[in-house]
Amino acid sequence: MFIEDSFNDTYFFKIEGYSEFNLKIYNRWGELVFGTNNPNEGWNGTFENSGSIIPDGTYFYVVEYSMLCSLKSERKSGTVNLIRSN
């Protein structure tokens, strides 16, 4: 993710056909830096999208969602790298 270079400025987890959605992003110490229940709201690489700069590095996401066509809940997790351009 590059911040303020007009390329990949916001991290979204794309999903269609959901009934419930929850995205959380944590730093390496397990502290929550961003959370949303709105899949159209992405993370802009700041603390809770407030504009407060957080360090470059690897962050961890957990997304939980339920699909409209089933009652089954899904959980996915992984990493996202935050890299600011100069």
Explain this structure:
By secondary structure, the protein is mostly beta strands. The protein has one domain (18-82). Helices cover 0% and strands 41% of the residues. It contains no helices and four strands. The chain has strands at residues 18-26, 32-36, 57-67, 73-82. A four-stranded antiparallel sheet has the order 2-1-3-4, with no helix packed on it. A hairpin with a 5-residue loop joins strand 1 (18-26) and strand 2 (32-36). It is elongated and about 45 Å long. The mean pLDDT is 86.
Any descriptors?
elongated, 86 residues, single chain, mainly beta
What radius of gyration results from the CA coordinates?
13 Å
Shape summary: elongated
Number of helices: 0
Residue runs with pLDDT of under 50 for 5 or more positions: none
Helix proportion range = under 10%
Total E-strand runs: 4
* Class of secondary structure makeup: mainly beta
What is the mean predicted local confidence, pLDDT?
86
Estimate nothing, just give the exact number of structural domains. Answer: 1
Q: Biggest sheet, strands in spatial order? A: 2-1-3-4
Gap between N and C termini, in Å?
13 Å
Provide the succession of SSEs.
EEEE
In this structure, how is the largest beta sheet organized?
A: 4 strands, antiparallel
